[in-house]
Amino acid sequence: MSYSYGVHHLHPTVRNVPLSVQIGTQLREQIMNGTWPIGTKVPGEHDLVKTFGTSRNTVREALRALVHLGLLESRPGDGTYVRSTSELGAVLGRRVTEESTKEVFEVREALEVQAARLAAQRITVEQIDALRALLKERYEGATVTDRLNADVKFHHLIVAASDNPLIVELHRGLEPAVIHDESNYTSMGSDDFLRAEHEAILDALAGHDPDGAVAATLQLLDAAAEKRGND
């Protein structure tokens, strides 16, 4: 299989930058621009050698550097996977694993409430349409995995609609905890759990109502926190 993903054949004379650094830079771009989302298995060394026209050692050095930064994770016998979309996200991801669920949830609430406020002012028609499709998948998806993925994407898209890169990056750092949190609800017996709250958020965003978006987001998070406390 051949992978290109926008990367290019490199030459050792380009700005006198080592090939491993050039390769690492291009791979990093694929991660940060979303071409390779978190959890994606990146092309193997053999494919990258063919893509870049360089040696296996050079490719291996580039991958090792990205693993060191926390952007990639090497799984012996399996391959290399995207762990984070930024260095900040990697640091936050490690920090999140050291904190309690309650503390992580409080940070998530702060970010998502402000993101909802900004998104209500900045969201596009295309993003609203995408949210509607994700909400439908969230409650009508064929499998638990489909519903979980749609739920996580729904919240990520709202954060992205805030059009604030720092909020987006901070929220990405919480992604492992968010996925774990959401999985507790999408697998529950009641298909309508939090449906009204999700719909209220979408309605407020579509109506460009910042106060309504904040209120609906808080209502959803409070309901989720109450459920967590009862489990």
UniProtKB/TrEMBL annotation:
The keyword Signal belongs to this UniProt entry's keyword annotation: no
PROSITE patterns to which the protein is assigned, alphabetical: HTH_GNTR
Keyword Transcription on entry: yes
InterPro entries in UniProt: GntR_C, TF_FadR/GntR_C, Tscrpt_reg_HTH_GntR, WH-like_DNA-bd_sf, WH_DNA-bd_sf
Domain HTH gntR-type: from-to ranges: 17-85
Keywords: DNA-binding, Transcription, Transcription regulation
Molecular functions per Gene Ontology: DNA binding; DNA-binding transcription factor activity
Taxonomic superkingdom: Bacteria
A Pfam family recorded for this sequence: FCD
CDD domains: WHTH_GntR (cd07377)
Name of the protein in its database record: DNA-binding transcriptional regulator, FadR family
Organism per entry: Arthrobacter woluwensis
